[in-house]
Design a protein that fits this description.
globular; about 260 residues; mainly alpha; 10 helices
Protein backbone atom coordinates (compact mmCIF):
# COMPACT_ATOMS: atom_id res chain seq x y z
CA UNK A 1 0.00 0.00 0.00
CA UNK A 2 2.67 2.50 1.03
CA UNK A 3 4.77 1.57 -2.02
CA UNK A 4 1.91 2.41 -4.37
CA UNK A 5 1.49 5.81 -2.76
CA UNK A 6 5.20 6.68 -3.07
CA UNK A 7 5.69 5.24 -6.55
CA UNK A 8 2.50 6.46 -8.16
CA UNK A 9 0.15 8.79 -6.33
CA UNK A 10 2.74 11.02 -4.62
CA UNK A 11 4.75 11.74 -7.76
CA UNK A 12 2.11 12.53 -10.38
CA UNK A 13 -0.84 14.91 -10.54
CA UNK A 14 -3.38 12.48 -11.94
CA UNK A 15 -3.72 8.73 -12.33
CA UNK A 16 -6.50 6.97 -14.24
CA UNK A 17 -7.34 3.43 -13.10
CA UNK A 18 -9.67 1.44 -15.35
CA UNK A 19 -10.84 -2.16 -15.16
CA UNK A 20 -13.97 -4.25 -15.27
CA UNK A 21 -13.32 -5.42 -11.71
CA UNK A 22 -12.30 -2.33 -9.75
CA UNK A 23 -15.72 -1.95 -8.13
CA UNK A 24 -16.80 -4.89 -5.97
CA UNK A 25 -19.51 -5.80 -3.50
CA UNK A 26 -23.22 -5.04 -3.39
CA UNK A 27 -23.83 -2.26 -4.08
CA UNK A 28 -20.68 -1.87 -6.18
CA UNK A 29 -18.05 0.28 -4.50
CA UNK A 30 -14.43 1.31 -5.03
CA UNK A 31 -13.67 1.36 -1.29
CA UNK A 32 -11.87 -1.99 -1.26
CA UNK A 33 -9.53 -0.91 -4.08
CA UNK A 34 -8.87 2.45 -2.45
CA UNK A 35 -7.90 0.81 0.82
CA UNK A 36 -5.62 -1.70 -0.92
CA UNK A 37 -3.66 0.87 -2.93
CA UNK A 38 -3.63 3.62 -0.29
CA UNK A 39 -5.83 6.00 -2.25
CA UNK A 40 -7.41 8.53 0.13
CA UNK A 41 -9.21 10.78 -2.38
CA UNK A 42 -10.41 10.04 -5.90
CA UNK A 43 -13.08 10.94 -8.42
CA UNK A 44 -15.16 7.82 -9.07
CA UNK A 45 -17.17 6.78 -12.12
CA UNK A 46 -18.81 3.39 -12.69
CA UNK A 47 -20.36 2.87 -16.12
CA UNK A 48 -22.28 -0.03 -17.61
CA UNK A 49 -21.00 -2.34 -20.32
CA UNK A 50 -22.19 -2.08 -23.95
CA UNK A 51 -21.87 -5.86 -24.17
CA UNK A 52 -25.26 -7.58 -24.47
CA UNK A 53 -24.72 -10.47 -22.07
CA UNK A 54 -28.20 -11.95 -22.61
CA UNK A 55 -27.77 -12.21 -26.38
CA UNK A 56 -24.01 -12.58 -26.77
CA UNK A 57 -22.95 -14.77 -23.85
CA UNK A 58 -23.74 -18.29 -22.77
CA UNK A 59 -22.87 -19.89 -19.45
CA UNK A 60 -22.34 -23.63 -19.66
CA UNK A 61 -21.85 -25.70 -16.51
CA UNK A 62 -20.80 -29.21 -17.52
CA UNK A 63 -21.80 -32.15 -15.37
CA UNK A 64 -19.64 -35.08 -14.35
CA UNK A 65 -16.33 -33.21 -14.33
CA UNK A 66 -13.82 -34.98 -12.06
CA UNK A 67 -12.68 -33.30 -8.87
CA UNK A 68 -9.71 -30.94 -9.57
CA UNK A 69 -7.79 -32.87 -6.92
CA UNK A 70 -8.01 -36.00 -9.04
CA UNK A 71 -5.09 -34.79 -11.13
CA UNK A 72 -4.83 -36.48 -14.52
CA UNK A 73 -8.53 -37.36 -14.68
CA UNK A 74 -9.46 -33.70 -14.23
CA UNK A 75 -6.86 -32.53 -16.75
CA UNK A 76 -8.06 -35.09 -19.30
CA UNK A 77 -11.68 -33.96 -18.89
CA UNK A 78 -10.66 -30.31 -19.34
CA UNK A 79 -8.67 -31.16 -22.45
CA UNK A 80 -11.61 -32.94 -24.07
CA UNK A 81 -13.98 -30.04 -23.29
CA UNK A 82 -11.54 -27.47 -24.64
CA UNK A 83 -11.07 -29.45 -27.84
CA UNK A 84 -14.86 -29.63 -28.29
CA UNK A 85 -15.45 -25.90 -27.88
CA UNK A 86 -12.42 -24.93 -29.96
CA UNK A 87 -13.92 -26.88 -32.84
CA UNK A 88 -17.39 -25.44 -32.24
CA UNK A 89 -16.03 -21.87 -32.37
CA UNK A 90 -13.67 -22.62 -35.27
CA UNK A 91 -10.71 -21.60 -33.15
CA UNK A 92 -12.27 -18.53 -31.56
CA UNK A 93 -11.36 -19.68 -28.06
CA UNK A 94 -9.65 -17.90 -25.19
CA UNK A 95 -9.17 -20.27 -22.24
CA UNK A 96 -8.46 -19.00 -18.73
CA UNK A 97 -6.86 -21.04 -15.95
CA UNK A 98 -6.33 -20.35 -12.26
CA UNK A 99 -3.13 -22.41 -11.98
CA UNK A 100 -0.03 -22.59 -14.18
CA UNK A 101 0.42 -26.30 -13.51
CA UNK A 102 -3.02 -27.18 -14.82
CA UNK A 103 -2.58 -24.89 -17.80
CA UNK A 104 0.72 -26.54 -18.76
CA UNK A 105 -0.67 -30.06 -18.34
CA UNK A 106 -3.79 -29.33 -20.40
CA UNK A 107 -1.73 -27.59 -23.08
CA UNK A 108 0.39 -30.71 -23.53
CA UNK A 109 -2.80 -32.69 -24.11
CA UNK A 110 -4.69 -30.37 -26.46
CA UNK A 111 -1.91 -28.82 -28.55
CA UNK A 112 -0.99 -31.91 -30.62
CA UNK A 113 -4.63 -32.97 -31.03
CA UNK A 114 -5.83 -29.57 -32.22
CA UNK A 115 -2.76 -29.13 -34.42
CA UNK A 116 -4.05 -32.02 -36.53
CA UNK A 117 -7.12 -29.87 -37.30
CA UNK A 118 -5.03 -26.81 -38.16
CA UNK A 119 -5.38 -24.99 -34.83
CA UNK A 120 -2.25 -23.43 -33.31
CA UNK A 121 -2.53 -23.35 -29.52
CA UNK A 122 -0.64 -20.52 -27.83
CA UNK A 123 0.17 -20.86 -24.14
CA UNK A 124 1.08 -18.02 -21.79
CA UNK A 125 4.80 -18.22 -21.08
CA UNK A 126 5.31 -20.67 -23.94
CA UNK A 127 8.84 -21.51 -24.99
CA UNK A 128 10.10 -17.92 -24.91
CA UNK A 129 12.07 -17.54 -21.70
CA UNK A 130 13.38 -13.98 -21.92
CA UNK A 131 16.17 -14.39 -19.39
CA UNK A 132 17.54 -17.41 -21.26
CA UNK A 133 17.45 -15.58 -24.61
CA UNK A 134 19.19 -12.56 -23.09
CA UNK A 135 21.88 -14.79 -21.61
CA UNK A 136 22.48 -16.40 -24.99
CA UNK A 137 22.62 -13.04 -26.76
CA UNK A 138 24.99 -11.44 -24.25
CA UNK A 139 26.92 -14.48 -23.04
CA UNK A 140 30.11 -13.20 -24.66
CA UNK A 141 30.19 -10.11 -22.39
CA UNK A 142 32.52 -11.09 -19.51
CA UNK A 143 31.32 -8.62 -16.86
CA UNK A 144 27.55 -8.99 -17.35
CA UNK A 145 25.08 -11.12 -15.40
CA UNK A 146 21.41 -11.81 -16.22
CA UNK A 147 19.26 -11.92 -13.08
CA UNK A 148 15.48 -11.80 -12.65
CA UNK A 149 13.73 -10.23 -9.67
CA UNK A 150 10.23 -9.52 -8.33
CA UNK A 151 10.70 -6.47 -6.12
CA UNK A 152 11.15 -2.73 -6.45
CA UNK A 153 13.89 -2.02 -8.99
CA UNK A 154 15.66 0.37 -6.64
CA UNK A 155 15.59 -2.21 -3.83
CA UNK A 156 17.10 -4.79 -6.16
CA UNK A 157 19.73 -2.27 -7.27
CA UNK A 158 20.71 -1.73 -3.63
CA UNK A 159 20.74 -5.49 -3.08
CA UNK A 160 23.27 -6.11 -5.84
CA UNK A 161 25.30 -2.99 -5.06
CA UNK A 162 24.42 -1.11 -8.26
CA UNK A 163 25.20 2.60 -8.53
CA UNK A 164 23.25 3.30 -11.73
CA UNK A 165 20.15 2.14 -13.59
CA UNK A 166 20.49 2.22 -17.38
CA UNK A 167 17.48 2.43 -19.69
CA UNK A 168 17.03 2.72 -23.45
CA UNK A 169 15.12 5.35 -25.43
CA UNK A 170 13.64 4.69 -28.88
CA UNK A 171 11.00 7.37 -29.46
CA UNK A 172 9.62 10.53 -27.82
CA UNK A 173 6.92 8.61 -25.96
CA UNK A 174 9.65 6.54 -24.31
CA UNK A 175 11.20 9.73 -22.95
CA UNK A 176 7.97 10.78 -21.25
CA UNK A 177 7.72 7.45 -19.45
CA UNK A 178 11.41 7.29 -18.55
CA UNK A 179 11.41 10.88 -17.29
CA UNK A 180 8.59 10.08 -14.87
CA UNK A 181 10.34 6.88 -13.84
CA UNK A 182 13.61 8.72 -13.27
CA UNK A 183 11.93 11.20 -10.92
CA UNK A 184 10.28 8.32 -9.05
CA UNK A 185 13.57 6.46 -8.68
CA UNK A 186 15.31 9.63 -7.51
CA UNK A 187 12.71 10.06 -4.78
CA UNK A 188 12.98 6.44 -3.66
CA UNK A 189 16.76 6.09 -4.02
CA UNK A 190 18.60 9.40 -4.43
CA UNK A 191 21.95 7.61 -4.23
CA UNK A 192 21.37 5.72 -7.51
CA UNK A 193 21.90 7.45 -10.86
CA UNK A 194 19.35 7.00 -13.65
CA UNK A 195 20.97 6.94 -17.13
CA UNK A 196 19.24 6.74 -20.54
CA UNK A 197 20.86 5.94 -23.89
CA UNK A 198 19.37 6.67 -27.30
CA UNK A 199 19.03 3.67 -29.59
CA UNK A 200 20.76 3.39 -32.94
CA UNK A 201 18.70 4.59 -35.89
CA UNK A 202 18.27 1.11 -37.37
CA UNK A 203 16.57 -0.13 -34.20
CA UNK A 204 14.39 2.89 -33.41
CA UNK A 205 11.26 1.34 -34.95
CA UNK A 206 11.61 -2.06 -33.28
CA UNK A 207 9.32 -3.12 -30.44
CA UNK A 208 8.37 -6.53 -29.07
CA UNK A 209 4.79 -6.26 -30.31
CA UNK A 210 5.92 -5.24 -33.81
CA UNK A 211 8.36 -8.13 -34.09
CA UNK A 212 5.78 -10.65 -32.87
CA UNK A 213 3.20 -9.39 -35.36
CA UNK A 214 5.66 -9.63 -38.24
CA UNK A 215 6.43 -13.25 -37.33
CA UNK A 216 2.75 -14.17 -36.90
CA UNK A 217 1.99 -12.78 -40.37
CA UNK A 218 4.83 -14.70 -41.99
CA UNK A 219 7.35 -11.87 -42.26
CA UNK A 220 11.10 -11.97 -41.80
CA UNK A 221 12.70 -10.48 -38.66
CA UNK A 222 16.32 -11.20 -39.56
CA UNK A 223 18.46 -8.31 -38.37
CA UNK A 224 15.82 -7.12 -35.91
CA UNK A 225 16.58 -9.71 -33.23
CA UNK A 226 19.41 -12.22 -32.64
CA UNK A 227 19.12 -15.46 -34.66
CA UNK A 228 18.21 -17.61 -31.64
CA UNK A 229 15.43 -15.17 -30.70
CA UNK A 230 14.07 -15.22 -34.26
CA UNK A 231 14.07 -19.03 -34.12
CA UNK A 232 12.19 -19.05 -30.79
CA UNK A 233 9.65 -16.52 -32.11
CA UNK A 234 9.13 -18.56 -35.27
CA UNK A 235 8.61 -21.69 -33.18
CA UNK A 236 5.94 -20.04 -31.07
CA UNK A 237 4.27 -17.51 -33.39
CA UNK A 238 5.24 -18.56 -36.91
CA UNK A 239 2.46 -19.24 -39.41
CA UNK A 240 1.98 -22.41 -41.38
CA UNK A 241 2.36 -20.67 -44.74
CA UNK A 242 5.21 -23.02 -45.62
CA UNK A 243 2.67 -25.86 -45.46
CA UNK A 244 0.30 -24.16 -47.88
CA UNK A 245 -2.12 -22.85 -45.27
CA UNK A 246 -3.38 -19.35 -46.10
CA UNK A 247 -4.58 -18.49 -42.60
CA UNK A 248 -3.83 -19.77 -39.14
CA UNK A 249 -6.48 -20.19 -36.46
CA UNK A 250 -5.17 -19.27 -33.05
CA UNK A 251 -6.22 -20.54 -29.65
CA UNK A 252 -4.84 -18.80 -26.57
CA UNK A 253 -4.37 -20.42 -23.17
CA UNK A 254 -3.88 -17.92 -20.33
CA UNK A 255 -3.38 -18.22 -16.61
Amino acid sequence: MAETEHILFDVTDSVVLTSATLAVGKPHSFEYLKRRVGLAEANELAVGSPFDFLRQARIIIPEGVPDPRSGEAYEEALARMIERYVRRTDGGAFVLFTAYGTMDAVHERVAPVLAEDGFRVLRQGGDLHRSAMIEEALGHVPNLSVVTYNQLTVDFAHQVGAHAIVRGLRVISDFELEFQMALTFKKLAPDIEFVCFMTSEEYAFISASTVKEIVMLGGCVDGMVPPHVAEALQKKFGTSSSQGVDSVRLVSLRD
